[in-house]
Design brief:
Length: 157
């Protein structure tokens, strides 16, 4: 920046200012601050991604599904998409444990591989976290003749 100053004799002399034009905040705006992602957010993403895979009948153990079915029937109760999913989220990485029920007749190895691929792709795309592992526990097989686990209707209406 150049400024003009006048001397007592009336001569104008250009002087170079030593002040620098500075940008406020410095650096790319996208890198200012920190984003944290809660475990529950990653669990929801992973739960939905796992349920998208053909051959996955349900998520969670039998007991968790029974309690979840009761909770789903309570007015105002929301369906739990995190049932059967546990996430450990760090600053840049996450690890997931899934518990699934598969349909009878499907290849458990193929379903597990597809679940792992879909969960990793969804979580990494949506969160930017690196998924270091997806552990899958197959807790049950849904047989064709088995009825859905429905809680008994309430006795008081």
């Amino acid at each position: 920046m150049t400024e003009m100053t006048t001397t007592p004799e009336g001569d104008s002399e250009p002087q170079v200012s030593t002040r620098k034009a500075t940008r406020r905040g410095g650096g790319d705006p996208a890198t200012r601050g920190r984003t944290t992602i809660a475990d529950g957010v990653v669990e929801k993403i992973a739960g939905l991604a796992a349920r998208e895979v053909p051959g996955v009948h349900a998520m969670g153990s039998g007991l968790a599904r029974t309690f979840g079915a009761v909770r789903d029937r309570v007015p105002g109760g929301a369906k739990s998409v995190t049932r059967g999913v546990k996430a450990e989220v760090g600053e840049v990485q996450t690890a997931l444990d899934l518990e699934i029920v598969v349909d009878y007749g499907v290849s458990i190895i193929d379903v597990s591989r597809a679940v792992r691929e879909n969960v990793i792709a969804s979580v990494e795309r949506m969160t930017g976290l690196e998924v270091v592992e997806v552990n899958i526990a197959v807790s049950d097989v849904k047989l064709p003749e088995e009825e859905e686990e429905e809680p008994a209707p309430p006795r008081i209406q």
